[in-house]
Amino acid sequence: MQTSNRLFTLRIGEALRELRQFVEVANRQSISRAAKSLNISQPALSRAIRQLEDSYGAPLFTRTGNGVVLSPAGSALYSRAVRILPALDEAREEIEHLQGRAKASLRLATGDLWGLVILPEVINDFVQAHPDVVVHTTITDDGTRFEGLRNGIYDIVFGRLSHKYQAVLHPEFEPMMRQATYVYCDARHPLAGTAPDLETLLAQRWISPGYDDDAGPGRIGGHPRDFAVRVENVMHALMLIQGSPLIMAASSGFVDLFRQSGVVHLELDDAPRPQESGAIYTERALQKPLVREFLRRARTRASHLDLPSWPPSIETSPLEDR
Question: Are 205 and 226 in contact (CB under 8 A)?
């Protein structure tokens, strides 16, 4: 009987692992990118997906030139899996926490600016005040942040509120600051210290630091550009731009960080338009005391920032007293 129970538990664990792998492939729309994220080999993940398809007797993905997309059967499984997995994770964490076997957790997803510049100090202070809590932080693209919030994987997402959030989730959005997009280059670049016009900027070769290729201040935004390099994050872009003839568009909030690495922003006549950025979360997440406290700390941190295109103070949110 005990042997049967162990076998049953192992099979359940295997089924959940396969389900998590399936969801990761669906979110990434690529087996290779999902394998990298899951830290397993691509052949191993391909075999796992085939086994899952065999167990359901239907193809779960349709192969395309750019990767994979969900089939009708895959969409049916995905819609259930993204509800089941977060609920099981929460239940396991709560049980383990009640038994003293694990810490409580707070899951965050951010873009580069929040993850690299704004939140590190908040996270450090938070974990010092809560030694019984582990904070999971993922710096990732907006699409992954959106899917994670929709599927209950993340408690809070930090960044700008795009239309897709409002169209699908109707989440709470708490603006905490404003940011604009600047154009950066190495301090030894011929354009450094100048105010180049649009034609000159469009004649340069660019780095895309892992998000919208159309991003750019003023009239630059939306113009096609000659991208020499595309990378997955701003830190990789920063390493590449140092000492190079390339330029890139990135948030105004990186000015101080970039300056320390010898990278400067260009003073353009066409001023960048600031955009609101802040915390995105659901009403369900707000019921957690840890979420409310982290938001309070993030709000305080953002209100004391003195960076380009950010106002000197932010009015207190009505959520302050919740």
Answer: yes
pLDDT digits (tens, 9 = 90+) for 62-110: 988 888 999 999 888 887 887 777 767 766 766 665 656 556 789 999 9
Query: What are 70's strand-pairing partners?
Result: 61
Cα–Cα distance between 246 and 225 in angstroms, integer?
12
CATH class of 2-84: mainly alpha
Burial code (b: 16+ CB inside 10 Å, e: under 16) for 169-194 equals eebbbbbbbbbbbbbbbbeebebbee
CA-CA-CA-CA dihedral for 7, 11, 14, 19, to nearest 10: -160
User: How far is it, in rounded angstroms, from Cα 127 to Cα 136?
Assistant: 11
pLDDT tens, position by position, 11-35: 666 778 888 899 889 888 899 988 9
Q: HSE, CB side, 13 Å, CA atoms: give it for residue 206.
A: 23
CATH code for residues 181-265: 3.40.190.10
- pTM higher than the cut 0.90: no
DSSP code string of 251-282: EGGGHHHHHTTTEEE---SSPPPPEEEEEEE-
3-state helix, strand, coil in the chain (%, to 5): 50, 20, 30
* 103-179+275-321 maps to CATH 3.30.70.20: no
